[in-house]
């Protein structure tokens, strides 16, 4: 070809993922904050575990949906399927990758409708939040102080013009100065980085190493990898509720489980298969 064909469809996918991320992001911080404010402290771990468990079920169904869509030809609905002579096992086969975005978008839109019927104002529980043990622990660590509210200083010009940015900067500074939260944030970054890498490359590894199709690889990953994670999240919430762990107790529990997971993951270095014989790469052409 004198000129390679180019397409700008990736821009629509980028904008769609950006809008999806904007819509999904408030659910986790605002939802957890709502549960922490309006639920009993001993029940919060179970509710948060349920929230994260349901969030993990989404990728599992996504893999299963991707497995189904990969069996359908990319131009389904636009071409006569009877005229297609290749099968999903053919290297030239391209599945209907766009169909998952369409189904997921419609489902997300329908799931967002009930949020429009939530009340604007919610009643606070009778007991004050400062009676919680977690508040007392943070108080002892110096995060909060029982002092009289200081007199409001005169607002500066930048605060009058950009009150939101000023408040955001102040809140962000206070949050990042909390050593326990900052350490937890670093641990979460490391865990999610490894988890995303696992989900990204494990299907490709199964395709190349075991000769599985894209459809079957997604199906196996979604069926075997994510359900144990959901079970672990839910059991963790039940254990925290049963033993009524404080922040220090939850930190020790999380460290123990993470260390055991690290030791178990080391076994991956001892499990593997030899590379396929490829002429010109692993063996000579002769």
TrEMBL record:
Signal peptide boundaries: none
Molecular function per GO: bile acid transmembrane transporter activity; sodium-independent organic anion transmembrane transporter activity
InterPro entries (UniProt xref): MFS_trans_sf, OATP
Topology in membrane: Multi-pass membrane protein
Transmembrane segments: 44-65, 95-118, 180-199, 219-240, 252-271
SUPFAM superfamilies for this protein: MFS general substrate transporter
Keywords: Disulfide bond, Ion transport, Membrane, Transmembrane, Transmembrane helix, Transport
Top-level taxon in the UniProt lineage: Eukaryota
A single GO BP: sodium-independent organic anion transport
This protein's GO CC annotations: basolateral plasma membrane
Compartment annotation: Cell membrane; Membrane
Family the UniProt entry places it in: Belongs to the organo anion transporter (TC 2.A.60) family.
Descriptive protein name: Solute carrier organic anion transporter family member
Gene this chain is encoded by: Slco1c1_1
């Amino acid at each position: 070809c004198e000129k390679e064909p180019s397409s700008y469809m990736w821009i629509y996918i980028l904008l769609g993922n950006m809008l999806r991320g904007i819509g999904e992001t408030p659910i986790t911080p605002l939802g957890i904050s709502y549960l922490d404010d309006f639920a009993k402290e001993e029940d919060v771990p179970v509710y948060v575990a349920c929230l994260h468990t349901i969030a993990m079920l989404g990728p599992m169904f996504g893999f299963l949906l991707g497995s189904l869509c990969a069996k359908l030809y990319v131009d389904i609905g636009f071409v006569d399927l009877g005229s297609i002579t290749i099968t999903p096992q053919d290297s030239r086969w391209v599945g209907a990758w766009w169909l998952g975005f369409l189904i997921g978008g419609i489902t997300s839109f329908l799931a967002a409708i009930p949020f429009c019927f939530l009340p604007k104002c919610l009643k606070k529980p009778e007991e004050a939040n400062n009676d919680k043990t977690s508040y007392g622990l943070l108080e002892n660590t110096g995060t909060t102080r029982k002092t009289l509210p200081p007199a409001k200083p005169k607002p500066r010009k930048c605060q009058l013009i950009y009150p939101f940015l000023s408040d955001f900067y102040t809140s962000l500074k206070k949050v990042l100065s909390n050593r326990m939260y900052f350490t937890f944030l670093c641990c979460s970054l490391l865990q999610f980085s490894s988890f995303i890498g696992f989900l990204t490359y494990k299907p490709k590894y199964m395709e190349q190493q075991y000769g599985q199709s894209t459809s079957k690889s997604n199906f196996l990953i979604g069926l075997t990898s994510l359900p144990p994670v959901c079970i672990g999240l839910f059991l963790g919430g039940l254990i925290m509720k049963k033993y009524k762990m404080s922040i220090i107790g939850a930190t020790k529990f999380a460290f123990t489980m993470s260390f055991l997971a690290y030791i178990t993951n080391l076994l991956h270095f001892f499990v593997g298969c030899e590379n396929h014989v490829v002429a010109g790469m692993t063996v000579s052409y002769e």
